[in-house]
Amino acid sequence: MTPRIDSFWLEAFLVVAEELHFGRAAERLHVGQSPLSQTIKKLEKEIGAQLFDRSTRRVSLSAAGHAFVPEARALLHGLQLGVERAHAAAGEIHGTVRVSFSGSMNHDTLPRLVSAVAAKHPHIRMECTQRLLSGDAIRALENGHVDVAFTGLPIASPLIATLPLAEEAHYLLCSMDHPLARAGRSSCSFRDIAEESFICTPQHQGSTLRRVFDETAQANGVSPAVKYEVADSSMVMAFVAHGLGVALIPECLCAIKPPDTHAILLDDVPPLHSALAWRKDNQSEVLRAVLRCAGNQ
């Protein structure tokens, strides 16, 4: 006999499986902890197996739970695809796309995409709540936590497809009282700034901007000092404005740099290539509609 399983039971199971904590899972699902616990018990009873090992100290997946995770994801994904295809056949596309972006770096590209989707497909909801640097964004795509991500290139993962968006020059951002700013310099080389103290995005989060910085330094045989690592590009620029160091920024950030900073073209730093990325095996009609909007911009 086919088990009678509610789709919310599957969603609840997957969130608890990720969090391994009923309190945090309940917060993500916007339900109470007690109702969530009852939902998991209903699912376990319907399946006929205990999915979690529970104690007063910790929650962990049982052997049955580990086995059920990929199946639960496949069931939910299949249901979503079926609903999307039914709407598409009726001439409308409904659904949600979870978008990852890298903060201020996408101050122009993200609103333009959301606007294009809203104009063409008013029933598509763009959920723009994941702010991730490139490396973390690719991992989120691979794990199914987001559907599409704004990211830098290149991408090594064989699971990911990309749509190139832009090629941008790099600039040195410094405070207005910096010697290069006072000299009115409009361009300089990386070697000219090798002795500066830099504010950079973190290495461990897979920042494309940081990769360009490190590779350029290595190519020039220099080792600039990284004084601060800051994940948010707006905060990087704020640090520069307060005279805490200089920073490497792409051309798109020049439009929103603080007024008391100066941008100088770096004429020997390779350009930044950015793209929209998604899993190759994601067959969502909603995702396809969003990608068509992105390709038409």
UniProtKB/TrEMBL annotation:
<dbReference type="InterPro" id="IPR000847">
    <property type="entry name" value="LysR_HTH_N"/>
</dbReference>
<dbReference type="GO" id="GO:0003677">
    <property type="term" value="F:DNA binding"/>
</dbReference>
<dbReference type="InterPro" id="IPR005119">
    <property type="entry name" value="LysR_subst-bd"/>
</dbReference>
<dbReference type="InterPro" id="IPR036388">
    <property type="entry name" value="WH-like_DNA-bd_sf"/>
</dbReference>
<keyword id="KW-0804">Transcription</keyword>
<dbReference type="GO" id="GO:0032993">
    <property type="term" value="C:protein-DNA complex"/>
</dbReference>
<keyword id="KW-0238">DNA-binding</keyword>
<keyword id="KW-0010">Activator</keyword>
<comment type="similarity">
    <text>Belongs to the LysR transcriptional regulatory family.</text>
</comment>
<dbReference type="Pfam" id="PF03466">
    <property type="entry name" value="LysR_substrate"/>
</dbReference>
<dbReference type="Pfam" id="PF00126">
    <property type="entry name" value="HTH_1"/>
</dbReference>
<keyword id="KW-0805">Transcription regulation</keyword>
<dbReference type="GO" id="GO:0003700">
    <property type="term" value="F:DNA-binding transcription factor activity"/>
</dbReference>
<dbReference type="InterPro" id="IPR036390">
    <property type="entry name" value="WH_DNA-bd_sf"/>
</dbReference>
<feature type="domain" description="HTH lysR-type">
    <location>
        <begin position="1"/>
        <end position="62"/>
    </location>
</feature>
<protein>
    <submittedName>
        <fullName>LysR family transcriptional regulator</fullName>
    </submittedName>
</protein>
